[in-house]
């Protein structure tokens, strides 16, 4: 099972990060569809996750604390000094990530769990 956790992201009809100072996204686990290196589901989730993290870093230049190991990827983003314009761009990237994960979950509902957690 692949577990995806979005912390401190308010999600009702849309995503709201305006009043948030810290965002945490964690992706962990394996789908178990195939062996490591040949699992299309893990590859899809990995590609979306890594593209998100690299875009936040390279295009928006927002600092992140990244955790990475086998079957685990996380990013902690502090928004205290992020402009309203960059928050809007980050929101769009997060929405894109959620849409991508949700579409994959629709194809493999028993292999992916997506949670929104607010502290």
Description:
This protein has 119 residues and is of the alpha+beta class. Helices cover 36% and strands 31% of the residues. Helix 1 (40-58) runs antiparallel to helix 2. It is globular, with a radius of gyration of 14 Å.
Task: Please summarize what this structure is.
The protein is α+β, with helices and mostly antiparallel strands. The chain has helices spanning 40-58, 84-107; strands at 2-7, 10-11, 15-16, 22-29, 64-69, 72-78, 112-117. It is built from two helices and seven strands.
Descriptive tags:
single chain, 119 residues, alpha+beta, 5-stranded mixed sheet, two-stranded antiparallel ribbon, 7 strands
Q: Regions with pLDDT < 50 over 5+ consecutive residues?
A: none
What value does the Rg take, in angstroms?
A: 14 Å
Number of helices in the DSSP assignment: 2
Q: What kind of sheet is the major sheet?
A: 5 strands, mixed
Q: What's the end-to-end separation, in Å?
A: 24 Å
Helicity range of the residues? Answer: 25-40%
- Largest beta sheet: what is the strand line-up? 5-6-4-1-7
Mean of residue pLDDT values: 92
Order of helix and strand elements from N to C terminus: EEEEHEEHE
Name the structural class.
alpha+beta
- Strand fraction equals 25-35%
Give the overall silhouette.
Answer: globular
